[in-house]
Amino acid sequence: MKVTYHPKHNVAYIALRDKPDQVETVRLSDEINVDLAPDGSVYGIELLNASRQLTADGGQLIVINQQSGQSSQLKLAI
Fold it and tell me: What is the pLDDT of residues 46-72, one digit of tens each?
C-alpha cells in the first residue's frame, strides 16, 4: 500500500495494489473517488480536498497493526 499527497492540488491517493492497465473511477462524493480494476477489486482511493479530510489526527497519518498493536506515524505537510 502506498499513500501519496500532492499539496499543490490538495489531493491524496491511497493505492492498495499495483495499478492495472485500466481502472474505472467511481465517484462516491464530491471529495472521494474509488478506482476499480477490471475484476472489480479496489485499486485505490482518491481524496479531493485532502487537507480537510486528513487533519483529524493533528495532520498525521497513523497506521496501526491491529494484531501486534504496533503503530507508525507520519506528519503530513498540509
Answer: 999 887 777 655 667 777 888 898 988
**Residues 8, 12, 18, 21: is their CA dihedral positive or negative?**
negative
**Cell triple for 12:** 491524496
Q: How many domains does the chain have?
A: 1
CA 1 to chain centre: 9
Q: pLDDT category, 1, cuts 50, 70, 90?
A: confident
> Which structural domain, as residue segments, surrounds residue 47?
2-75
- Please state, in angstroms and rounded to a whole number, the distance separating the CA atoms of residues 71 and 14: 18
User: For the purposes of burial, counting CB atoms within 10 Å of the CB of 33, is it exposed (0-12), middle (13-18) or buried (19 or more)?
Assistant: middle
Half-sphere exposure for 40 (CA within 13 Å, toward CB): 0
Query: Whole-angstrom Cα distance, residue 29 to residue 27?
Result: 6
